[in-house]
Amino acid sequence: MPKIISMINWKGGVGKTTLTLHLAAGLALRHSKRILLIDLDPQCNLSFLAIGAGAYIDHTYKNKFPTLKTIFDAYFDRSTINASDVILKKRVRASAGRVFTNVDVILSHQELTLLDMKLAREKRSGRDHREETKFEIEKISIIKSIIDSVSDEYDYVLIDCPPNVNLVTQSAFFASDYYVVPAIPDFLSTVGIALINQYMDQFNSDYQSMWGYSGLAGSYADTQFGGIIFNMVDEYGEGPKKGHRGIINNLKAELGDSAIFKNYVTDGDGVSTAAEMNLPVFAHRDLPRAQQNAFKQANYLDNVVDEFMSRIG
Ligand SMILES: Nc1ncnc2c1ncn2[C@@H]1O[C@H](COP(=O)(O)OP(=O)(O)O)[C@@H](O)[C@H]1O
Ligand SMILES: [Mg+2]
Fold it and tell me: Which residues does residue 181 pair with via DSSP β-bridges, in sequence order?
């Protein structure tokens, strides 16, 4: 069974997409893990980063290759779709001229935003309230069902979520074993983090009771907190610079030391240069510039990946 992890933060620009891609790359490169990436954000940033924006446009718009949207369309049409139809293999870029053989991806689609409203309106009437609850759970299980059907093919499924809560995002939370919160050491970006945990606690308890009431077999397993990963940290000497350290320590005081990854990722132009080339920083040798910074960030990311494995298993 793979470990399924949603990368979430209600804030944009904190590194959700960057960390999703690099966790996958690190787990695949150094630990030989098999990864499925799911891009849940209609902004399609992970899709662009993973295979290249041009390739994405050809693939999705020209060649009409299925995406995450196709999975939801099948639900509305009451047709069936196989995971193998939507999972793209051997296309995620590892270095210049090489792709990952063990990182697959389900691409996103811009129209996922429209789909959410459609999903919200879709109410299947049942014989009674109990049966309607069962239908609600089926609706939220769309992503879970796809993952379940390929569960023996992967060690990790990493889901890059958009910075908002809608039914599409909720279906990712529902499918996940863990949620991990990327954050930047900035006051406004950290004040909201406690609210994410509160939201997820409520989400878990709602689905615990709904599942129980629905009469479905089995039970709902809570989506557990995997921790906060700080990104874009500036250093001074051995650790984060004073202002950043203060913010990280305040959050530790609020949520407990164990809530926060000991390892973090530094700010630097390695990540952005690699992104321009649609590469992870681990391919620092292939970058036209910022090689040294990419090398440094790759080392920090290696440590984050190791800690991720010891926390999540
Ligand atoms: N550690 C980092 N150092 C420098 N730039 C970064 C770093 N992490 C992310 N970025 C850049 O910051 C921007 C936002 O990151 P992204 O991963 O897209 O955030 P999110 O998915 O949370 O919106 C991107 O342009 C990305 O390349
Ligand atoms: Mg993103």
Answer: 228
pLDDT in tens, 248-270: 999 999 999 999 999 999 999 99
Measured CA to CA, the distance from residue 187 to residue 151 in angstroms comes to: 39
* Nearest atom (ligand 1) to Cα of 11: 22
Residue-wise pLDDT for 125-158, tens only, equals: 889 999 999 999 999 999 999 999 999 999 999 9
Q: Residues 3-312: name the CATH superfamily.
A: P-loop containing nucleotide triphosphate hydrolases (3.40.50.300)
Which ligand lies nearest to the CA atom of residue 13 in the structure? 1
Would the CB of 2 count as within 6 Å of ligand 1? no
Domain boundaries, the chain: 3-312
Q: What is the pTM of this model?
A: 0.98
Ligand 1 neighbourhood includes 17 CB (under 6 angstroms)? yes
Beta strand extents in the chain (DSSP E only): 3-7, 35-39, 93-95, 98-99, 103-106, 156-160, 178-183, 224-230, 235-236, 239-240
